[in-house]
Fold:
Amino acid sequence: MPAIELSGRRIIVAVTGGIAAYKACELVSTLVKSGAQVRVVMTESARRFVSEMTFATLSGHEVAWDMWAPRTNVEHISLAEFAEVCVIAPATANVIAKCAHGIADDLLSTCLLALTCPVVIAPAMNTRMLCSAPVQANLATLRERGVHVVEPEEGRLACGETGAGRLPATEVLVEAVRDALRSRRGAMSGMRILITAGPTREAIDPVRFLSNPSSGRMGYELAAEAQRRGADVTLVSGPTSLPRPEGVAVVAVQSAEQMHEAVQERAGVVDLFIGAAAVADWRPAEAATEKMKKGDREEMTLRMVRTPDIIASVAQWQPRPTIVGFAAETNETIAHAREKLQRKGMDMIVANDVSEPGAGFEVETNRVTLIDVIGRETDLPLMSKAEVAAAILDRAGALIASRESQ
Ligand SMILES: Cc1cc2nc3c(=O)[nH]c(=O)nc-3n(C[C@H](O)[C@H](O)[C@H](O)COP(=O)(O)O)c2cc1C
Structure:
Protein backbone atom coordinates (compact mmCIF):
# COMPACT_ATOMS: atom_id res chain seq x y z
CA MET A 1 0.00 0.00 0.00
CA PRO A 2 1.48 3.41 -0.91
CA ALA A 3 2.60 5.51 2.07
CA ILE A 4 0.38 8.50 2.71
CA GLU A 5 2.37 11.69 2.59
CA LEU A 6 1.50 14.06 5.46
CA SER A 7 3.30 17.01 3.96
CA GLY A 8 0.84 19.74 2.98
CA ARG A 9 -2.11 17.87 4.51
CA ARG A 10 -4.65 20.11 6.21
CA ILE A 11 -5.31 18.60 9.61
CA ILE A 12 -7.47 19.72 12.54
CA VAL A 13 -6.32 18.49 15.94
CA ALA A 14 -9.29 18.80 18.30
CA VAL A 15 -8.25 18.75 21.95
CA THR A 16 -10.82 18.12 24.68
CA GLY A 17 -10.68 18.29 28.46
CA GLY A 18 -9.00 15.09 29.57
CA ILE A 19 -5.85 14.62 31.56
CA ALA A 20 -4.14 13.32 28.38
CA ALA A 21 -4.52 16.74 26.71
CA TYR A 22 -0.79 17.32 27.24
CA LYS A 23 -0.05 14.39 24.91
CA ALA A 24 -1.78 16.28 22.07
CA CYS A 25 1.19 18.70 22.16
CA GLU A 26 3.48 15.95 20.88
CA LEU A 27 0.89 14.96 18.27
CA VAL A 28 0.69 18.54 16.94
CA SER A 29 4.45 18.89 16.96
CA THR A 30 4.94 15.58 15.10
CA LEU A 31 2.36 16.46 12.44
CA VAL A 32 3.87 19.92 11.92
CA LYS A 33 7.37 18.38 11.61
CA SER A 34 5.96 16.07 8.90
CA GLY A 35 5.02 19.17 6.94
CA ALA A 36 1.27 19.11 7.69
CA GLN A 37 -0.74 22.31 8.06
CA VAL A 38 -2.25 21.92 11.51
CA ARG A 39 -5.02 23.94 13.15
CA VAL A 40 -5.83 23.25 16.78
CA VAL A 41 -9.36 23.56 18.12
CA MET A 42 -9.87 23.27 21.88
CA THR A 43 -12.76 23.03 24.27
CA GLU A 44 -13.00 25.36 27.26
CA SER A 45 -12.21 22.39 29.51
CA ALA A 46 -9.10 21.50 27.46
CA ARG A 47 -7.78 25.02 28.11
CA ARG A 48 -7.78 24.17 31.84
CA PHE A 49 -5.32 21.35 31.17
CA VAL A 50 -2.97 22.88 28.57
CA SER A 51 -2.55 26.51 27.62
CA GLU A 52 -3.68 27.51 24.14
CA MET A 53 -0.35 29.37 23.91
CA THR A 54 1.45 26.01 23.74
CA PHE A 55 -0.68 24.81 20.83
CA ALA A 56 -0.50 28.17 19.05
CA THR A 57 3.30 28.04 19.22
CA LEU A 58 3.52 24.40 18.13
CA SER A 59 1.07 24.77 15.24
CA GLY A 60 2.15 28.27 14.22
CA HIS A 61 -1.50 29.34 14.13
CA GLU A 62 -4.02 30.86 16.48
CA VAL A 63 -5.99 28.28 18.43
CA ALA A 64 -9.74 28.25 17.86
CA TRP A 65 -11.92 27.75 20.92
CA ASP A 66 -14.15 30.81 21.32
CA MET A 67 -17.38 30.56 19.36
CA TRP A 68 -18.19 34.18 20.14
CA ALA A 69 -14.86 35.88 19.40
CA PRO A 70 -15.58 38.80 17.05
CA ARG A 71 -14.33 38.00 13.54
CA THR A 72 -15.37 38.43 9.95
CA ASN A 73 -15.52 34.75 8.94
CA VAL A 74 -17.63 32.00 10.50
CA GLU A 75 -14.77 30.11 12.07
CA HIS A 76 -16.38 26.73 12.73
CA ILE A 77 -17.39 26.53 9.05
CA SER A 78 -14.13 27.78 7.56
CA LEU A 79 -12.20 25.34 9.76
CA ALA A 80 -14.45 22.48 8.69
CA GLU A 81 -13.85 23.39 5.05
CA PHE A 82 -10.11 23.66 5.60
CA ALA A 83 -9.73 20.13 6.97
CA GLU A 84 -8.76 17.02 5.00
CA VAL A 85 -8.86 15.04 8.22
CA CYS A 86 -9.74 15.79 11.84
CA VAL A 87 -8.31 13.96 14.82
CA ILE A 88 -9.93 14.37 18.25
CA ALA A 89 -7.22 13.51 20.76
CA PRO A 90 -7.87 13.05 23.55
CA ALA A 91 -11.63 12.63 23.14
CA THR A 92 -13.58 12.95 26.39
CA ALA A 93 -16.71 10.96 27.16
CA ASN A 94 -18.51 14.29 26.85
CA VAL A 95 -17.33 15.12 23.31
CA ILE A 96 -17.95 11.54 22.17
CA ALA A 97 -21.57 11.88 23.38
CA LYS A 98 -21.91 15.24 21.63
CA CYS A 99 -20.55 13.83 18.36
CA ALA A 100 -22.83 10.82 18.52
CA HIS A 101 -25.91 12.97 19.12
CA GLY A 102 -25.13 16.01 17.02
CA ILE A 103 -24.90 18.45 19.90
CA ALA A 104 -23.25 21.72 18.87
CA ASP A 105 -22.85 23.95 21.90
CA ASP A 106 -19.28 25.18 21.55
CA LEU A 107 -16.84 25.92 18.75
CA LEU A 108 -15.31 22.44 18.68
CA SER A 109 -18.57 20.45 18.63
CA THR A 110 -20.14 22.84 16.09
CA CYS A 111 -17.11 22.52 13.84
CA LEU A 112 -17.24 18.71 14.14
CA LEU A 113 -20.82 18.74 12.91
CA ALA A 114 -19.85 20.75 9.83
CA LEU A 115 -17.00 18.41 8.81
CA THR A 116 -17.21 16.40 5.62
CA CYS A 117 -13.69 14.94 5.92
CA PRO A 118 -12.76 11.71 7.74
CA VAL A 119 -12.70 11.97 11.54
CA VAL A 120 -10.43 10.07 13.92
CA ILE A 121 -11.49 9.84 17.58
CA ALA A 122 -9.03 8.77 20.24
CA PRO A 123 -11.02 8.23 23.45
CA ALA A 124 -9.11 8.59 26.71
CA MET A 125 -10.72 8.26 30.12
CA ASN A 126 -11.07 6.21 33.25
CA THR A 127 -11.77 2.50 32.53
CA ARG A 128 -15.18 2.49 34.15
CA MET A 129 -16.19 5.58 32.17
CA LEU A 130 -14.94 3.91 28.98
CA CYS A 131 -16.78 0.67 29.68
CA SER A 132 -20.01 2.42 30.67
CA ALA A 133 -23.03 1.62 28.53
CA PRO A 134 -23.53 5.19 27.20
CA VAL A 135 -19.90 5.64 26.13
CA GLN A 136 -19.82 2.21 24.46
CA ALA A 137 -23.15 2.90 22.69
CA ASN A 138 -21.92 6.29 21.51
CA LEU A 139 -18.66 4.82 20.19
CA ALA A 140 -20.64 2.11 18.38
CA THR A 141 -22.82 4.80 16.76
CA LEU A 142 -19.75 6.71 15.63
CA ARG A 143 -18.06 3.58 14.23
CA GLU A 144 -21.22 2.82 12.28
CA ARG A 145 -21.06 6.30 10.76
CA GLY A 146 -17.54 5.64 9.54
CA VAL A 147 -15.65 7.52 12.25
CA HIS A 148 -12.20 5.98 12.87
CA VAL A 149 -12.09 5.09 16.58
CA VAL A 150 -8.58 4.49 17.91
CA GLU A 151 -8.69 1.81 20.63
CA PRO A 152 -7.51 3.22 23.96
CA GLU A 153 -4.56 1.37 25.49
CA GLU A 154 -4.45 -0.52 28.75
CA GLY A 155 -2.18 0.57 31.57
CA ARG A 156 -1.98 2.73 34.63
CA LEU A 157 -4.36 5.65 34.38
CA ALA A 158 -3.97 9.15 35.81
CA CYS A 159 -6.65 8.39 38.40
CA GLY A 160 -4.41 5.65 39.84
CA GLU A 161 -6.47 2.76 38.50
CA THR A 162 -5.22 0.25 35.95
CA GLY A 163 -7.19 -0.70 32.84
CA ALA A 164 -8.17 0.41 29.34
CA GLY A 165 -8.50 4.14 28.74
CA ARG A 166 -5.02 5.52 28.02
CA LEU A 167 -4.43 7.68 24.98
CA PRO A 168 -2.20 5.64 22.63
CA ALA A 169 1.31 6.80 21.72
CA THR A 170 1.73 9.60 19.16
CA GLU A 171 2.92 7.16 16.45
CA VAL A 172 -0.35 5.20 16.77
CA LEU A 173 -2.37 8.42 16.43
CA VAL A 174 -0.35 9.55 13.41
CA GLU A 175 -0.89 6.14 11.79
CA ALA A 176 -4.64 6.51 12.41
CA VAL A 177 -4.52 9.90 10.65
CA ARG A 178 -2.76 8.26 7.70
CA ASP A 179 -5.39 5.49 7.62
CA ALA A 180 -8.17 8.06 7.60
CA LEU A 181 -6.53 9.94 4.73
CA ARG A 182 -6.12 6.64 2.91
CA SER A 183 -9.84 5.92 3.34
CA ARG A 184 -10.55 9.26 1.67
CA ARG A 185 -8.49 8.02 -1.26
CA GLY A 186 -11.31 5.70 -2.24
CA ALA A 187 -13.96 8.32 -1.58
CA MET A 188 -14.65 8.86 -5.31
CA SER A 189 -14.61 5.21 -6.20
CA GLY A 190 -16.94 4.46 -9.11
CA MET A 191 -17.48 8.14 -9.89
CA ARG A 192 -17.07 9.21 -13.54
CA ILE A 193 -15.24 12.52 -13.75
CA LEU A 194 -14.58 14.55 -16.90
CA ILE A 195 -12.02 17.34 -16.65
CA THR A 196 -10.86 19.84 -19.27
CA ALA A 197 -7.41 21.38 -18.96
CA GLY A 198 -4.87 23.59 -20.68
CA PRO A 199 -5.22 26.27 -23.31
CA THR A 200 -6.86 25.96 -26.70
CA ARG A 201 -5.25 26.99 -29.98
CA GLU A 202 -7.36 28.76 -32.56
CA ALA A 203 -5.73 28.49 -35.95
CA ILE A 204 -5.08 31.56 -38.10
CA ASP A 205 -3.24 29.54 -40.73
CA PRO A 206 -1.29 26.22 -40.64
CA VAL A 207 1.61 27.77 -38.67
CA ARG A 208 -0.06 30.45 -36.52
CA PHE A 209 -2.67 30.38 -33.81
CA LEU A 210 -4.26 32.44 -31.03
CA SER A 211 -3.83 30.99 -27.54
CA ASN A 212 -3.21 31.88 -23.89
CA PRO A 213 -0.52 31.08 -21.30
CA SER A 214 -2.45 28.36 -19.40
CA SER A 215 -0.03 25.58 -18.37
CA GLY A 216 -2.81 23.05 -17.75
CA ARG A 217 -1.35 22.26 -14.33
CA MET A 218 -4.54 22.88 -12.32
CA GLY A 219 -6.60 20.50 -14.48
CA TYR A 220 -3.83 17.86 -14.45
CA GLU A 221 -3.58 18.03 -10.63
CA LEU A 222 -7.36 17.64 -10.40
CA ALA A 223 -7.23 14.61 -12.70
CA ALA A 224 -4.39 12.99 -10.73
CA GLU A 225 -6.08 13.58 -7.36
CA ALA A 226 -9.49 12.35 -8.61
CA GLN A 227 -7.78 9.21 -9.94
CA ARG A 228 -6.06 8.66 -6.58
CA ARG A 229 -9.49 8.91 -4.94
CA GLY A 230 -10.68 6.03 -7.06
CA ALA A 231 -12.63 7.91 -9.75
CA ASP A 232 -12.77 6.92 -13.40
CA VAL A 233 -11.20 10.05 -14.91
CA THR A 234 -11.13 11.40 -18.46
CA LEU A 235 -9.00 14.46 -19.13
CA VAL A 236 -9.68 16.44 -22.30
CA SER A 237 -6.52 18.44 -22.69
CA GLY A 238 -5.42 21.29 -24.88
CA PRO A 239 -1.69 21.41 -25.79
CA THR A 240 0.51 21.28 -22.66
CA SER A 241 3.99 20.03 -21.84
CA LEU A 242 2.80 18.09 -18.78
CA PRO A 243 3.18 14.32 -18.39
CA ARG A 244 -0.01 12.30 -18.71
CA PRO A 245 -1.35 11.58 -15.18
CA GLU A 246 -1.11 7.87 -14.39
CA GLY A 247 -4.36 5.94 -14.74
CA VAL A 248 -6.19 8.82 -16.44
CA ALA A 249 -7.66 8.59 -19.96
CA VAL A 250 -6.36 11.61 -21.88
CA VAL A 251 -8.01 13.00 -25.02
CA ALA A 252 -5.67 15.48 -26.70
CA VAL A 253 -7.32 18.36 -28.56
CA GLN A 254 -6.20 21.66 -30.04
CA SER A 255 -9.12 24.02 -30.55
CA ALA A 256 -12.16 25.04 -28.49
CA GLU A 257 -14.37 23.31 -31.05
CA GLN A 258 -12.45 20.03 -30.74
CA MET A 259 -12.60 20.30 -26.94
CA HIS A 260 -16.35 20.88 -27.14
CA GLU A 261 -16.80 17.82 -29.37
CA ALA A 262 -14.67 15.58 -27.12
CA VAL A 263 -16.70 16.72 -24.10
CA GLN A 264 -20.07 16.26 -25.89
CA GLU A 265 -19.15 12.68 -26.78
CA ARG A 266 -19.37 11.88 -23.08
CA ALA A 267 -22.80 13.46 -22.52
CA GLY A 268 -24.91 11.54 -20.04
CA VAL A 269 -22.12 9.35 -18.66
CA VAL A 270 -20.45 11.81 -16.31
CA ASP A 271 -21.10 12.40 -12.60
CA LEU A 272 -18.81 15.38 -12.20
CA PHE A 273 -17.61 17.79 -14.86
CA ILE A 274 -14.75 20.17 -14.06
CA GLY A 275 -14.01 22.82 -16.66
CA ALA A 276 -10.45 23.86 -15.81
CA ALA A 277 -9.34 24.61 -19.38
CA ALA A 278 -8.67 28.17 -20.50
CA VAL A 279 -10.90 27.93 -23.56
CA ALA A 280 -10.73 30.68 -26.17
CA ASP A 281 -13.95 32.70 -26.37
CA TRP A 282 -13.28 33.63 -30.00
CA ARG A 283 -11.61 32.05 -33.00
CA PRO A 284 -10.70 33.41 -36.44
CA ALA A 285 -13.78 33.01 -38.65
CA GLU A 286 -11.67 31.28 -41.30
CA ALA A 287 -8.29 29.61 -40.91
CA ALA A 288 -6.24 30.04 -44.07
CA THR A 289 -5.32 26.68 -45.59
CA GLU A 290 -1.90 27.96 -46.69
CA LYS A 291 0.60 29.99 -44.68
CA MET A 292 -0.45 33.65 -44.95
CA LYS A 293 2.15 35.81 -46.65
CA LYS A 294 3.08 39.17 -45.23
CA GLY A 295 3.13 40.75 -48.68
CA ASP A 296 3.37 44.52 -48.60
CA ARG A 297 0.31 45.05 -46.38
CA GLU A 298 0.71 47.46 -43.43
CA GLU A 299 -2.41 46.16 -41.65
CA MET A 300 -4.48 43.10 -41.54
CA THR A 301 -7.83 42.35 -39.91
CA LEU A 302 -8.90 39.05 -38.47
CA ARG A 303 -12.64 38.47 -38.30
CA MET A 304 -13.44 36.51 -35.16
CA VAL A 305 -16.45 34.38 -34.29
CA ARG A 306 -17.58 32.93 -30.98
CA THR A 307 -16.46 29.47 -29.91
CA PRO A 308 -18.93 27.02 -28.34
CA ASP A 309 -19.61 27.51 -24.61
CA ILE A 310 -18.56 24.12 -23.26
CA ILE A 311 -19.81 24.53 -19.69
CA ALA A 312 -23.18 25.94 -20.77
CA SER A 313 -23.68 22.93 -23.07
CA VAL A 314 -22.78 20.48 -20.29
CA ALA A 315 -25.42 22.21 -18.14
CA GLN A 316 -28.03 21.11 -20.74
CA TRP A 317 -27.19 17.40 -20.44
CA GLN A 318 -29.78 14.99 -19.08
CA PRO A 319 -28.83 13.67 -16.60
CA ARG A 320 -26.87 16.76 -15.74
CA PRO A 321 -23.59 16.17 -13.88
CA THR A 322 -22.40 18.28 -10.97
CA ILE A 323 -20.52 21.13 -12.67
CA VAL A 324 -17.45 22.95 -11.42
CA GLY A 325 -15.99 25.84 -13.39
CA PHE A 326 -13.20 28.36 -13.00
CA ALA A 327 -13.18 32.13 -13.19
CA ALA A 328 -9.74 33.57 -13.86
CA GLU A 329 -10.26 37.29 -13.43
CA THR A 330 -8.13 40.39 -13.17
CA ASN A 331 -10.64 42.65 -11.42
CA GLU A 332 -13.76 42.32 -9.28
CA THR A 333 -13.00 38.60 -9.14
CA ILE A 334 -15.77 37.55 -6.78
CA ALA A 335 -18.54 39.58 -8.41
CA HIS A 336 -17.62 38.27 -11.87
CA ALA A 337 -17.33 34.71 -10.58
CA ARG A 338 -20.77 34.85 -8.89
CA GLU A 339 -22.33 36.14 -12.08
CA LYS A 340 -20.65 33.38 -14.16
CA LEU A 341 -21.77 30.69 -11.68
CA GLN A 342 -25.41 31.75 -12.12
CA ARG A 343 -25.30 32.43 -15.85
CA LYS A 344 -23.74 29.09 -16.77
CA GLY A 345 -25.75 26.98 -14.32
CA MET A 346 -22.73 25.64 -12.42
CA ASP A 347 -22.76 24.11 -8.95
CA MET A 348 -19.45 25.62 -7.91
CA ILE A 349 -16.97 28.10 -9.28
CA VAL A 350 -13.31 28.40 -8.39
CA ALA A 351 -12.43 32.07 -8.57
CA ASN A 352 -8.94 33.43 -8.74
CA ASP A 353 -7.37 36.77 -9.45
CA VAL A 354 -4.72 35.90 -12.02
CA SER A 355 -3.06 39.29 -11.61
CA GLU A 356 -2.08 38.37 -8.02
CA PRO A 357 1.46 37.03 -7.46
CA GLY A 358 1.51 33.24 -7.06
CA ALA A 359 -1.99 32.75 -8.51
CA GLY A 360 -3.22 31.70 -11.93
CA PHE A 361 -1.33 30.85 -15.11
CA GLU A 362 2.15 29.32 -15.33
CA VAL A 363 2.80 29.11 -11.57
CA GLU A 364 2.90 26.13 -9.19
CA THR A 365 0.63 27.77 -6.63
CA ASN A 366 -2.82 29.25 -6.55
CA ARG A 367 -4.97 31.31 -4.21
CA VAL A 368 -8.62 30.66 -4.89
CA THR A 369 -12.08 31.29 -3.51
CA LEU A 370 -14.66 28.51 -3.77
CA ILE A 371 -18.20 29.78 -4.34
CA ASP A 372 -21.04 27.31 -4.54
CA VAL A 373 -24.60 27.42 -5.74
CA ILE A 374 -26.00 27.77 -2.23
CA GLY A 375 -23.94 30.91 -1.72
CA ARG A 376 -21.11 29.53 0.41
CA GLU A 377 -17.86 31.38 -0.22
CA THR A 378 -14.55 30.01 1.07
CA ASP A 379 -11.23 31.81 0.71
CA LEU A 380 -8.40 29.30 0.62
CA PRO A 381 -4.88 30.41 1.50
CA LEU A 382 -2.04 30.38 -1.08
CA MET A 383 -1.50 26.66 -1.68
CA SER A 384 0.16 24.37 -4.19
CA LYS A 385 -2.09 23.45 -7.13
CA ALA A 386 -2.14 19.85 -5.79
CA GLU A 387 -3.56 21.12 -2.48
CA VAL A 388 -6.07 23.32 -4.28
CA ALA A 389 -7.12 20.27 -6.32
CA ALA A 390 -7.73 18.27 -3.13
CA ALA A 391 -9.80 21.11 -1.63
CA ILE A 392 -11.89 21.44 -4.82
CA LEU A 393 -12.57 17.70 -4.91
CA ASP A 394 -13.51 17.67 -1.21
CA ARG A 395 -16.11 20.37 -1.83
CA ALA A 396 -17.30 18.84 -5.11
CA GLY A 397 -17.72 15.47 -3.36
CA ALA A 398 -19.84 17.15 -0.68
CA LEU A 399 -21.97 18.89 -3.35
CA ILE A 400 -22.54 15.58 -5.16
CA ALA A 401 -23.56 13.95 -1.87
CA SER A 402 -26.01 16.75 -1.12
CA ARG A 403 -27.53 16.55 -4.65
CA GLU A 404 -27.93 12.79 -4.25
CA SER A 405 -29.70 13.17 -0.89
CA GLN A 406 -32.28 15.61 -2.33
C1 LIG B 1 -8.58 16.31 36.58
C2 LIG B 1 -9.62 15.90 35.58
C3 LIG B 1 -9.31 14.97 34.65
C4 LIG B 1 -10.26 14.57 33.70
N1 LIG B 1 -9.93 13.62 32.79
C5 LIG B 1 -10.86 13.21 31.93
C6 LIG B 1 -10.52 12.20 30.98
O1 LIG B 1 -9.40 11.72 30.91
N2 LIG B 1 -11.49 11.80 30.10
C7 LIG B 1 -12.75 12.33 30.14
O2 LIG B 1 -13.59 11.90 29.33
N3 LIG B 1 -13.07 13.29 31.01
C8 LIG B 1 -12.16 13.73 31.91
N4 LIG B 1 -12.49 14.72 32.80
C9 LIG B 1 -13.85 15.27 32.79
C10 LIG B 1 -14.01 16.31 31.68
O3 LIG B 1 -13.05 17.33 31.84
C11 LIG B 1 -15.43 16.87 31.70
O4 LIG B 1 -16.34 15.84 31.36
C12 LIG B 1 -15.59 18.05 30.78
O5 LIG B 1 -16.94 18.47 30.82
C13 LIG B 1 -15.22 17.71 29.37
O6 LIG B 1 -15.43 18.82 28.54
P1 LIG B 1 -15.09 18.81 26.97
O7 LIG B 1 -15.57 17.50 26.44
O8 LIG B 1 -15.87 19.96 26.44
O9 LIG B 1 -13.63 19.01 26.85
C14 LIG B 1 -11.56 15.14 33.73
C15 LIG B 1 -11.84 16.13 34.65
C16 LIG B 1 -10.89 16.50 35.58
C17 LIG B 1 -11.24 17.58 36.58
User: Anything to note?
Assistant: The chain has 14 helices and 21 strands. The two ends are 36 Å apart (CA to CA). The first strand starts at residue 10 and ends at 15. Residues 158 and 165 are 10 Å apart (CA to CA).
